[in-house]
Write a structure and sequence with these properties.
about 0% strand; about 200 residues
């Protein structure tokens, strides 16, 4: 019984912790990765991002990012000295922390909606959210309002729309930091999709 409980707990933790970071999202610019980065370093970066998505704590993600930069900074081509390296580490770990906060916010909102929606409708809405997240290079600040409109459009019953609107509004009111951060980032400012080609 303990083994089953442990396995279920481990799977739940991995689902909760997974960040769904796409390698060509705004995060790559925080690592100073771009079109001129050598192919072998780009491949190491992609592997590092895949492993970031497997990490179950923010501390582990920050450590992985720091290790990657410390090992590869001379190969990246845009980090010229230890001062720039320190700035890049601060920027990249800050972006990873921002992503952690964003996904925590979205996952907690989804948890509130799950209790109020039929399983199939919830799955549709959840998949819609994460598809937008991937398509928009993890820029939730950019697509969040559009997703809310799509969320309500996917719910045919007027009474249910009103209930869901209230849940979302109450959740946003209880979590004002997300909206404040969203307003501080204009589309394209700090969240450019990265070209690794």
């Amino acid at each position: 019984m303990r083994l089953v409980t442990f396995a279920v707990s481990a799977c739940f933790l991995a689902i909760v912790a997974s960040q769904g970071i796409v390698y060509n999202s705004w995060i790559c610019t925080s690592f100073s990765i771009g079109a001129t980065t050598p192919t072998d370093v780009k491949n190491k970066y992609k592997t590092m991002i895949a492993n970031l998505n497997k990490d179950t704590t923010l501390k582990a993600q920050k450590a992985r990012a720091t290790t990657f930069l410390n090992k590869n900074w001379k190969l990246i081509g845009t980090i010229f000295d230890k001062d720039v390296l320190a700035q890049t580490i601060t920027r990249s770990t800050g972006m990873i922390e921002s992503r952690w906060k964003i996904t925590t916010y979205l996952k907690e909102l989804l948890a509130k909606l799950k209790a109020k929606l039929a399983a199939a409708k919830f799955t549709e809405i959840k998949n819609m959210l994460w598809a937008k997240d991937k398509t928009n290079g993890n820029n939730a600040y950019y697509f969040y309002d559009e997703w809310k409109e799509d969320l309500l459009a996917a719910i045919p019953a007027a009474a249910k729309k009103t209930e869901i609107t209230k849940i979302v509004a109450e959740y946003e009111k209880a979590n004002p930091d997300f909206e404040a951060e969203k307003k501080s980032f204009l589309p394209g400012k700090g969240f450019n999709k990265c070209s690794l080609t």
